[in-house]
Amino acid sequence: MNVLEIKDVNKSFREKKVLKDISIDLESGSILGLLGPNGSGKTTILKSIAGLYEINSGSILVDGKTVGKETKGIVSFLPDKPIIPSNMKVSEAINYFKNFFEDFNEEKAINILTRFYIPLYTKLDRLSKGDNEKVHLALTLAREAKLYLLDEPLVGLDPKAREEMVEVILENFNEGSSVIVSTHLVRDVERLFDKVCFIKNGEVFMLEDAEDIRYRNNMSIEEFFKEVY
Questions:
Q1: C-beta separation of 153 from 185 below 8 A
Q2: What is the pLDDT of residues 74-99, one digit of tens each?
Q3: Under a CB-based contact definition with an 8 Å cutoff, are residues 199 and 38 in contact?
Q4: Which of 66, 164, 192, 221 gets the highest tally of CB atoms within 10 A of its CB?
Q5: Coiled coil where (predicted)?
Q6: In CATH, what number is assigned to the domain containing residue 16?
């Protein structure tokens, strides 16, 4: 069963068309790499799935439901910029999510943060940018959602931290749910992907199984990414 079905979606901001006839489907239990350079439309796609942007035409179904109030409870979104007030302690951020989301698993959040060696009683503004990213990822993954949307989760991290992030995503991936990872940093994360969608100038350039791309082109997803862009 498809957890996500996007069909013929168009989105404009004023006179600028940023998504053009986008169609993407994603099966339950799989991880999709949403790949493209900055400004290609990746964030707009994720925010449209999350219900933060209203599309101009087309349709988006999450678990068979039209995007709206009902789907916000089954979609967990990690934006590309921090959303938690920086004067909060990590423990306060946990309580904030616990009170806001019924599906939030506090124990899971603490386990992930412990894995990252993040102190719970430190304010976010005292943490490094990388550790802030880890806190936001932990809180996002700690929800028992059907669909996780991770927008550029590796930006600003050193190679070691990127590897840690990938491991945590794999360790906490529930096979009954699905994940979309938006990124232009392909090398560090491509082993996650079951399926890959290349976005170019607001359009789907290619949507295909990751292994099929590797086999047909005899190259890695990163190498193919460099050829496309």
A1: no
A2: 999 999 888 899 999 999 999 999 99
A3: no
A4: 221
A5: none
A6: 3.40.50.300
